[in-house]
Design brief:
The chain is mostly helical and about 260 residues long. It is about 75% helix and about 0% strand. The chain is globular, with a radius of gyration of 20 Å.
């Protein structure tokens, strides 16, 4: 079995795990979680199959990627699996009760100090949340944010250390075109603004949007899976959108003029 196939199976299992393992979740939430994971899994499968259909895109990675790419994937999988497992355990915890409760209280305090959006759960939601709901929201969101931060930093370091010629080869092999200045600038600005919006919780505590994961009063009052949806959304907005903007900038600086 190829490493990429094994990685796909592990990622799929990792995504399915919260659907049945969290403490409290409505049946429709569990069904919706499984359905969303299967849907995105099919999209990923079709993307891989369509890529392999073109012989020019099935090139072997360069020496740097062959040497360190596997370690990066294992590290990211381990980081998210650890964060997800702890977040699931926290759904069973109580503030300052037992080992999990103590860990959750530490995460809540640390998250409130490092992430303004986490601190707002205690004082910016009307009507105010109970102590248990604050503990649950702060500890679980912080757990996911740490996993996303560590993973995004590792990806950043990996590509900074990768030789420029290997980056160029990968971009050319994927058929990438050099973005123009306006597109690259807009991508970077969009990534930064989206990240800051998620980091500070801008509009999240006043919004009346129907999308629950963008409305703090909604997802903190929901079940565990609703809170997990919000956490995943924050990871994407806070860390991976800026990486996407940075990737556009790298492509702009690396690829030759069309």
């Amino acid at each position: 079995m190829k490493n990429s196939v094994l990685a796909g199976y592990i990622l799929f299992f990792l995504a399915l795990l919260p659907g049945w393992a969290v403490h409290t979740a409505a049946t429709q939430s569990r069904v919706g979680w499984f359905g969303a994971v299967i849907f995105f899994g099919f999209i990923g499968l079709f993307a891989v199959l369509s890529t392999r259909a073109y012989p020019g895109t099935d090139r072997k990675p360069g020496p740097f990627a062959q040497r360190y790419g596997g370690y990066l994937c294992v590290f990211i999988f381990a980081t998210f699996l650890s964060g997800e497992s702890l977040a699931i355990a926290l759904t069973y915890g109580e503030p300052d009760q037992g080992f999990i409760g103590e860990i959750g209280s530490i995460l809540s305090a640390l998250g409130s100090y490092l992430f303004p959006v986490v601190a707002k759960y205690a004082n910016s939601i009307q009507p105010p949340l109970s102590d248990k709901s604050i503990f649950r929201a702060q500890s679980i969101i912080t757990c996911f944010l740490f996993a996303g931060f560590i993973s995004s930093i590792s990806i950043f370091i990996y590509y900074v250390a990768m030789p420029k010629n290997e980056i160029t080869e990968r971009l050319n092999a994927g058929g990438r075109k050099r973005p123009n200045t306006l597109t690259a600038f807009a991508g970077v600005i969009f990534g930064i603004l989206t990240s800051l919006s998620a980091y500070f919780g801008i509009d999240e505590f006043q919004t009346k949007t129907e999308h629950c994961w963008l409305n703090a009063a909604c997802y903190t009052a929901g079940d565990d899976l609703t809170l997990f949806w919000a956490a995943v959304g924050k990871i994407v907005m806070m860390f991976f959108f800026p990486l996407g903007g940075l990737a556009m900038l790298v492509a702009r600086r690396t690829l030759p003029e069309n």
